[in-house]
């Protein structure tokens, strides 16, 4: 297929594009909402994968703009989101997209959704009894990409997670719930693509708590901090294995 991938987080975009291209698809990747709208106007795509939290123009607004274009009813559009919040899921459901994929992007889930065996919308919540790390996520990348490329992506991911973790701590320290929620959302999106399951679960839970104005998310924030440290160790071990 000819696929437009709109994803602002660099390491997530690189990994998703690599997986899609190795599966035989032609991919155009953009990193913000206006670029996604422009690309959809310039070329005919079989499928658009649209991140909800794009800069410049949010993903749901970008979908609406694409649907208003002369060929806007033609492409199939799936939203991509790491959001666990009711607001995020509602935005995906009513914007004119054909369904929703919860990050991380996986080829089997994408194929099932396109085949109609799995509809859009949020899947069941992840269980706290699930393993902390999905070794299969890294293994899949190793099977589809050169070892040096995988190590590079893992290294970049660890650096991004450190940056987001620091920004999260700073936002919580000054009581900036909106920024903290955005950072939790970014951590969830990046960590899931690289097999850090427990961190993704905790970050999504923190994002949901921060959406509620009367909650005090100190315990959940501490949990995310601990999971982040463990995730960084996991990524470092994975990169060292080559």
The gist of it:
This protein is of the alpha/beta class and 242 residues long. It contains ten helices and five strands, in the order βαβαβαβαβαααααα.
General description of the model:
It is found in: Cell membrane. The protein has 242 residues and is α/β, with parallel strands linked by helices. It folds into two domains: 2-115, Rossmann fold, CATH 3.40.50; 135-240, Four Helix Bundle (Hemerythrin (Met), subunit A), CATH 1.20.120. It is 59% helix and 10% strand. The chain has ten helices and five strands, in the order βαβαβαβαβαααααα. The longest helix has 27 residues, at 147-173. The two termini are 31 Å apart. Mean pLDDT is 86; it is low at 117-128.
What's the arrangement of secondary structure elements?
Layout (H helix, E strand, L loop, with lengths): L1 E5 L3 H13 L3 E5 L2 H10 L4 E5 L7 H9 L8 E6 L4 H9 L4 E4 L4 H9 L19 H10 L2 H27 L3 H17 L3 H15 L6 H23 L2
Parallel strand pairs: 1-2, 1-3, 3-4, 4-5
Helix pairs in contact: 1-7, 2-3, 7-8, 7-10, 8-9, 9-10
């Amino acid at each position: 297929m000819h696929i437009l991938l709109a994803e602002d987080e660099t390491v997530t975009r690189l990994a998703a594009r690599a997986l899609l291209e190795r599966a035989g698809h032609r991919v155009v990747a953009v990193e913000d909402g206006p670029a996604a709208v422009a690309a959809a106007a310039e070329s005919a795509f079989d499928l658009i994968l649209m991140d909800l939290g794009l800069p410049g123009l949010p993903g749901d607004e970008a979908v609406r703009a694409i649907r208003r274009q002369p060929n806007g009813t033609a492409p199939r559009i799936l939203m991509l989101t790491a959001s666990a919040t009711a607001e995020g899921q509602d935005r995906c459901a009513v914007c004119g997209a054909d369904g929703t994929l919860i990050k991380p992007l996986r080829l089997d889930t994408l194929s099932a959704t396109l085949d109609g065996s799995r509809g859009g919308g949020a899947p069941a919540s992840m269980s706290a009894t699930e393993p902390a790390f999905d070794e299969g996520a890294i293994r899949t990348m190793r099977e589809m990409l050169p070892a040096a490329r995988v190590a590079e992506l893992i290294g970049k991911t660890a650096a991004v997670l450190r940056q987001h973790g620091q920004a999260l701590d700073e936002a919580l320290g000054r009581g900036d719930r909106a920024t903290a929620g955005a950072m939790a959302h970014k951590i969830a999106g990046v960590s899931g693509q690289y097999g850090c399951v427990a961190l993704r679960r905790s970050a999504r839970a923190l994002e949901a708590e921060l959406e509620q104005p009367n909650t005090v998310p100190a315990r959940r924030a501490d949990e995310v901090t601990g999971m982040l440290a463990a995730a960084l160790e996991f990524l470092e071990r994975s990169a060292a294995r080559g």
